Amino acid sequence: MQDLHTFEIKPKKAFAFNFKELVDYSELLYFFAWRDIKVKYKQTVLGFLWAVLQPLLLMLIFTFFIGRAMGVSSEGMDYPVFAYSGLVLWLVFSSGVTNAANSMVTNAAIIKKIYFPRLIIPVSAVLVALFDFVMAFVIFIVILLFFSAPIKLSLIYWWPLALLVTTIGTVGPGCLLAALNIKYRDFRYVVPFLMQALLFLTPVIYPVSSIDQLWLRYVVALNPMYAAISVFRLPLTNVPPDWTLISISLVSGVLVFVIGLAYFRRTENYFADIA
Amino acid sequence: MLEVKGVSKKFSIRHESPYLSFRDRVMDLFKPTHSSSEEFWALRDVSFEIQPGESIGIIGKNGAGKSTLLKILSKITPPTQGRIIGRGRIASLLEVGTGFHPELTGRENIFLNGSILGMKRQEIASKFDAIVDFAGTERFLDTPLKHYSSGMQLRLAFAVAAFLEPEILVIDEVLAVGDAEFQKKCIGKMEDVSRSGRTILFVSHNMAAVQSLCTKSILLQRGELKAMGSSANVVAQYLSSLDSQAIDASGFIQIHPKESDKPIRAIEVLCDKRRSATTYMGCEFEIRVHFNASQALTNPVLGIVVKDFQSTPLLGVNNRNYTGNFITTPLKAGYISMKIPSLTLFEGTYHVDVHLGDEFKDIDVLTDCFQFTVEPMPFTASGELPIKSINRMFIKDIAWDLNPTNHVE
């Protein structure tokens, strides 16, 4: 008998955050992500190809219909490189947030019967999206080679940073929506629409410089993914970044992250009662 | 050691829809008062202490707060007041197989389920062979779980949980399922657990199982601790409280009120076509379960379990087994009747469980929801009844024959 620690069960405080417990359960986080990845690819014929096909097809569509037809500029990159570099992170965000938002409802049976830190569920949903990113990223390298795109060595720090910002920017809204979804089922319908709208409202497939009004640029930069995508493109372009906009986006991302976690934490204790 | 001090749990029941809709919440902002909600104390000031190595039975009628107590003990829901102090790892088997995924193989599910139950990966790996051995499913380790029979799934699930080795084990009615041999294995495993100085909390409606597994028991009634003591005493107290609870001789039992989202509204007991909970041996016996469901039922299934005074099941039947599902368009309200042309139960008092569900699952389960008595009625030529202590049921037509010739030696 190794861990005979004393425990205490009592009415919960709203904002206490048990970080140690989360570390104790890190293996379960891994298992949940592992289960979802395994199940996802077991059930489909094309398996892992799906993770690659989605950004690839979207890139082709946008290249022909927006890049060519509408002549959108692309910050000095080849438009396909520009579009794919945005989409590959965008898909982490959109599928991560969508998975996380539904995750508490799909796992309601487990939540009602077994205790573990509930945060594990939406976070593991985001991990699944990050796994897809790894697949899609391999194709990104191929695309870069194909267009022999010039790359700066600064990618060693910009790309991990971009991924970190993406993760924070995805976990925040993911947790917020997961908690809201279990309380108000309306959000099930809101999320897919929101993701679709945000794709066009954010500079993913067009550069922010193509927006004429300055105030509108500030609004658009409120999306946490703006910073992530801009930072991700830094090693690929010579166009100087707009640090003001990136800072706005970063602050917005951290803010949503904190709010999302706090709200999730506040409602977490009662999930088992209302799920 | 486990100390429960003054634990209470309050639920607010919102009338109307079970889910909150965001629209309702928005509309509430404009209303002077918030929409009607009612407070309900599922547990009220419950305190007790358990020493290491004790196994404790928790008994009480449906709605007495047993499940809520288990949920609080296993940290699934926090108490509203009070606290619990304990030592070691708590594991709950509120329902075995939680987290099993049909697409994953047996091997994968063992790891997933073990991890959900709180085991470390190394721990699972080191116990893996023992788990598989206990479940007896070696041959199907790499088969997806969806191809397992339900009995095999259950065995695998219990096996994972059995090797968890927590200091405090919380069990809720898992023994109700599985074949007899496997049940024996499970009970043996539980006895091992309690012998090794661990604590077991066992909730069950099976009084015989409670008495054989638990030295002490707790009786809950309407959320309050009614009694704690030796299992024999507490079980006796519980059973007598069932009997004294006015046998409603009218044969009409009101169940859930109109506002409830549980479908069963009332139950009728008929003896020779007249409402009565007092019946006699050989009468025409009918149970009618009246329902009004918030969500329409497709192919409703009615299950009836008749148990004797010790809660030992004697008869468990449902219409699907007998005549197949009722094929209907989705139906909200109505009644289902079960009619036995000639009741073969011996004289005595019987408790009844009622299960109402659709083709896939139970929707409303009432344990010990009513009882009826069977009066003696001579059916033999001599007018004498068979000896009561060795008969639970009777068979009217038994051919007895004495043949003086052609005997074999």
Q: Name the chain pair with the biggest interface and residue counts per chain.
A: A-B, 38 and 45 residues
Note poorly predicted spans of chain B: none
Distance between the termini of chain A: 35 Å
Strand residue percentage of chain B: 25-35%
SSE blueprint and pairings:
The complex is a heterodimer of chains A (275) and B (409).
Chain A: E1 6-9, H1 19-24, H2 26-42, H3 49-68, H4 79-106, H5 108-111, H6 120-146, H7 155-183, H8 187-201, H9 214-220, H10 224-233, H11 243-268, H12 271-274
Chain B: E1 2-14, H1 22-28, E2 37-50, E3 55-59, H2 66-73, E4 81-87, E5 90-93, H3 106-116, H4 121-135, H5 150-162, E6 168-172, H6 180-195, E7 199-203, H7 207-213, E8 216-221, E9 224-230, H8 231-244, E10 252-254, E11 264-271, E12 274-275, E13 278-280, E14 285-297, E15 301-307, E16 313-318, H9 319-323, E17 331-340, E18 348-357, E19 362-375
Parallel strand pairs in B: 3-7, 3-8, 5-6, 6-7, 13-19
Antiparallel strand pairs in B: 1-2, 1-4, 8-9, 10-11, 11-12, 11-14, 14-17, 15-16, 15-18, 18-19
Helix pairs in contact in B: 3-4, 3-5, 4-5
Describe the fold and architecture.
The complex is a heterodimer of chains A (275) and B (409). With 275 residues, chain A is mostly helical. Chain A has one domain. Chain A contains 12 helices and 1 strand; from the N terminus they run βαααααααααααα. In chain A, helix 3 crosses helix 6, helix 4 runs antiparallel to helix 8 and helix 4 runs antiparallel to helix 10. In chain A, 43% of the residues are buried. By secondary structure, chain B is an alpha/beta fold. Chain B folds into 2 domains: 221 residues, P-loop containing nucleotide triphosphate hydrolases (Rossmann fold); 130 residues, Coagulation Factor XIII, Chain A, domain 1, CATH 2.70.50. Chain B is built from 9 helices and 19 strands. Chain B has a 6-stranded mixed β-sheet, with helices on both faces. In chain B, strands 10, 11, 12, 14 and 17 form a 5-stranded antiparallel β-sheet that branches. The mean pLDDT of chain B is 82. At the A-B interface, strand 1, helix 2, helix 5 and helix 12 of A face helix 1, helix 2, strand 4 and helix 3 of B.
